[in-house]
């Protein structure tokens, strides 16, 4: 197992939705901030990777389980650990704890290394991942099979400049924004995600348009992000209903 790393933080106002819950895309942003801080302390920051190897980390898959979403002003602890790696994939765990020390969100992320110029995936050099003390394992963590959409509802979104990160591609949390936003306010006011499985297939080009499509059966939604006739991302989301209450009274 790898070296663990933790950070405490309070949920800021701008990361809370109308129900007072943190937005799940922001959970990803905060979690990646924590793993980035660990990399800096271990001497293998994103800047180091670029300067020494011309490589960037990209995420291919997420598997997220939500017991509950933390609320505005709640203090959480995010813990991360680089678990295992093989020739192409690196697996990292994120766990979000509440103030009582209960695990309320579990997330597994699959990373690969990409050459920044050629945009091609590179094999994992054991020297690069050695500081994380993760184990080498030939075992592959496979995601689900994403079915075709049956009778999809679809909405188009413009890819804006501030949707991009410094590597020139759409920030991976933005895909979740598109996936959730298309569900509509009425649905999102009454439901929160219980499980999210997300696969990135192909980068979205800057400046273009994407279509966010989904179909819904009960509390299971099937999603697809596409552009220029190609699939960019796929997701399966299991939702849970929650009772709307005045979250100001729950703080």
3D architecture notes:
There is one protein chain. By secondary structure, this protein is α+β, with helices and mostly antiparallel strands. The protein has two domains: 1-143, Roll (Thiol Ester Dehydrase, Chain A); 144-242, Hotdog Thioesterase (Thiol Ester Dehydrase, Chain A, Roll), CATH 3.10.129. 18% of the residues lie in helices and 40% in strands. The chain is built from five helices and twelve strands. It has helices spanning 24-41, 46-53, 126-129, 172-181, 185-188; strands at 4-10, 55-66, 75-85, 90-97, 103-115, 121-122, 135-136, 153-158, 191-200, 209-217, 220-227, 230-241. Strands 1, 2, 3, 4, 5, 6, 7, 8, 9, 10, 11 and 12 form a twelve-stranded mixed β-sheet that branches. Strand 3 (75-85) and strand 4 (90-97) form a beta hairpin. Helix 1 (24-41) packs antiparallel against helix 4 (172-181). The radius of gyration is 18 Å and the shape is globular. The N and C termini lie far apart (37 Å). Residues 246-251 have low confidence and may be disordered.
Secondary structure layout:
Elements: E1 4-10, H1 24-41, H2 46-53, E2 55-66, E3 75-85, E4 90-97, E5 103-115, E6 121-122, H3 126-129, E7 135-136, E8 153-158, H4 172-181, H5 185-188, E9 191-200, E10 209-217, E11 220-227, E12 230-241
Parallel strand pairs: 3-7
Antiparallel strand pairs: 1-3, 2-5, 2-9, 3-4, 4-5, 5-6, 8-10, 9-12, 10-11, 11-12
Helix pairs in contact: 1-4
Domain Acyl-ACP thioesterase-like C-terminal: 150-241
Pfam families: Acyl-ACP_TE, Acyl-ACP_TE_C
Family: Belongs to the acyl-ACP thioesterase family.
């Amino acid at each position: 197992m790898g070296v663990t790393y933790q950070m405490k933080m309070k949920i800021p106002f701008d990361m809370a939705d109308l129900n007072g819950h943190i937005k799940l895309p922001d959970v990803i942003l905060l979690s990646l901030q924590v793993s980035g801080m660990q990399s800096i302390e271990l001497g293998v920051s994103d800047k180091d990777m670029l300067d020494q190897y011309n490589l960037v980390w990209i995420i291919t898959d997420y598997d997220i389980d939500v017991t509950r979403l933390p609320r505005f002003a709640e203090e959480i602890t995010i813990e991360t650990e680089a678990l295992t790696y093989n020739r192409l994939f690196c697996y990292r765990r994120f766990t979000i704890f509440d103030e009582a020390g209960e695990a309320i969100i579990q997330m597994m992320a699959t990373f690969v290394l990409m050459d920044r110029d050629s945009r091609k995936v590179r094999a994992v050099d054991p020297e690069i991942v050695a500081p994380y003390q993760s184990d080498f394992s030939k075992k592959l963590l496979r995601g689900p099979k994403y079915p075709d959409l049956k009778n999809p509802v679809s909405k188009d979104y413009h890819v804006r400049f501030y949707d991009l990160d410094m590597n020139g591609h759409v920030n991976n949390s933005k895909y979740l924004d598109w996936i959730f936003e298309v569900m509509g306010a009425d649905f999102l006011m009454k439901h929160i995600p219980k499980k999210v499985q997300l696969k990135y297939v192909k980068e979205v080009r800057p400046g273009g348009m994407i279509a966010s499509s989904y179909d819904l059966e009960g509390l299971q939604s099937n999603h697809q992000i596409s552009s220029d006739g190609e699939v960019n991302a796929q997701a399966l989301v299991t939702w849970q209903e929650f009772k709307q209450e005045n979250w100001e009274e729950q703080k």
